[in-house]
């Protein structure tokens, strides 16, 4: 079946290479990355749900960040791995629109949850006496509900604007998923103006979130530098610096990808940026937060020891020798 026949009812994802052997290798690398990222996020979701010592607002927000990261990986990577191994690269129109919805919804939700997390750290460090009142369980629940709702609205608006676009030609997407900048390149009319306006509006909101995060961390670092104890400063920095790194990495790569001028021919920069803001953040987040957080590391060790203990008892009961 020719590329033209395939794309009559959908799109052709070209990925990163035309060489089939390289496509197989890239698909396997993406699969390994997906499994590692999914496992890391699943562990964080599990321990922040089950461990009674990890029920503070900080870990409550971290759990939802991990749910977002696990969902984000599942939106793009499995489809690419499947199409690469099947040597088709085909994605239906409906699947493509679903990717647009979930990707944009989850991306905005992640940006807002990161903003909420920075505010949580600001209150905890700069207003510790008021922390339990400001970050009460009810307010945290409402904040998370608002975050998820805003993401759903964003995804709906983006998808509606994409649905108004007419596509023409072979409808070949030089990317491993239905990325909006690549979809705009194959539109055959000026209908994409609505998408551009939506992107500009979301950029303003992203900038507002960034300013809120920057304000929170300016206040945090100002307060931390006045702490006389070096151990106290180290503990705060170990909590805040990973979060600041995640925000900066996620926002900078996303802005570069969506606001830079699009070119007719795909570039290596386009492919690298797409990996940086779709695959790496949700894969690295569990590592960044876990390695610098003693409470999380302790909870993981306790979980592993508990699983080992249960497994040993089960084995002993099976062989009747304990």
TrEMBL record:
UniProt xrefs under InterPro entries: GPCR_Rhodpsn (IPR000276), GPCR_Rhodpsn_7TM (IPR017452), Olfact_rcpt (IPR000725), Olfactory_GPCR (IPR050516)
Transmembrane segments annotated in the record for this chain: 24-48, 100-119, 140-160, 200-224, 236-260, 272-291
One of the record's GO cellular component terms: plasma membrane
Membrane topology: Multi-pass membrane protein
Molecular function terms, GO-annotated: G protein-coupled receptor activity; odorant binding; olfactory receptor activity
Keywords: Cell membrane, G-protein coupled receptor, Membrane, Olfaction, Receptor, Sensory transduction, Transducer, Transmembrane, Transmembrane helix
Domain G-protein coupled receptors family 1 profile: 40-289
Any Pfam family the entry gives: 7tm_4
Main subcellular location: membrane
Protein's cellular compartments: Cell membrane
PANTHER family: OLFACTORY RECEPTOR
Function: Odorant receptor.
Protein known as: Olfactory receptor
